[in-house]
Design brief:
This protein is mostly helical and 115 residues long. The protein has helices spanning 2-26, 31-47, 54-74, 104-114, and strands at residues 77-82, 85-89. Strands 1-2 form a two-stranded antiparallel sheet.
Amino acid sequence: CEHRNMQSRKEVLKCYRLLQRTCRSLFQKDLEALEAAKKRIKEEFWKNHSVSNQEQISQLLVQAHETEQFLRQNVVQAVYTGDNTYRVRMMKETALADNPPIPKHLLAETRKKQQ
C-alpha cells in the first residue's frame, strides 16, 4: 500500500509540473495571465491534497490531464500589435476548425464597445 501511495504522489507531482509547464509555454510574456494560471493550479491541487482514495486520485488526475490537453489545444495568446490588430500565437497542438463568420450586427456591437 505504501508503494501505491508513493506512485500516486509521483503521478500527482508529474501532472502538476506538466500543467505548470503548459501554462508557462502558453502564457509567455503575459505575466498577469501566467500568475493567475499558476495560482489556480496550485489552489486546485492544494484543495485536493488530502484525498487518499486511489479511485478519487485517478479521477482527479484524468481531470487534470484533460484540462492540460484543453489548454494546449484550445487556448491561444493574442498580442496587440497596434493599429487595432493582434498577432495570435498558437501552439503546435492548437486545434484548428472552421468558424462561421461573425454576424454583422454582433461585429458592430463589439466595435462600439471597444470605442
